[in-house]
Amino acid sequence: METFKRRSDRLMNNNPTREVTLKRENIEKKISPFVKYEGKIVYLTNLCEIAEAADTLRQWVEGQQVPVPLSFDMEWPFSFKTGPGKTSVVQMCLELNCCYVFQLTNLRKLPAALVALLKHPRVRLHGVNIKNDLQKLARDFPEMELDDLKQRCIDLGTWCNEINETGNRWSLDRLCNYLIGLVIYRELENRTRIKKEKENQFIQNNGSAAFKAVKALGKNFLTE
Per the database record, which ranges form the 3'-5' exonuclease domain (predicted)? Predict the structure, then answer.
């Protein structure tokens, strides 16, 4: 893993901005293997199935004695004519060996059990730009009232900058490349040209990549 100089060292440099810029370029140019998820995929599409799975996860969280990290990511369609569409997919991991993919396309409202899981006081949601994701989820599904939920979220990009004393603007792909030496399969990003099977692979990789990133950053927040 590439290491960054401490802030005090950077301030002594004659051109610290150039140094950080060059390091950013090195991160982007780094050639790394792809994230490949090999765990269990639980793919659910109807309200009852999603509710049952979410309630099972909530009960598991209840049995834990410490705050529980939950990696969280969302997908939605986008049109240059009409803008962003309604949230269509939510993916989450409570453990690296199992990724839950909830298809929300045909749901008029979120299952109460899913809302309860996301808002559980012991759950710590983490992801890249996660607060913006939650705001969109709340706009698309008004029953998802945010309350103080955003205060219990961990943005992986912000957290990485705090720990490494960097000032980068991270995507999940670049963050994983920096932290764990892996990249998300870029070919799958153009989902107008790929088959459904590969689209699902991209979604699953996002969920597992976020979980791997938080493991790389450490578990300090679990004891806070």
Answer: 49-184
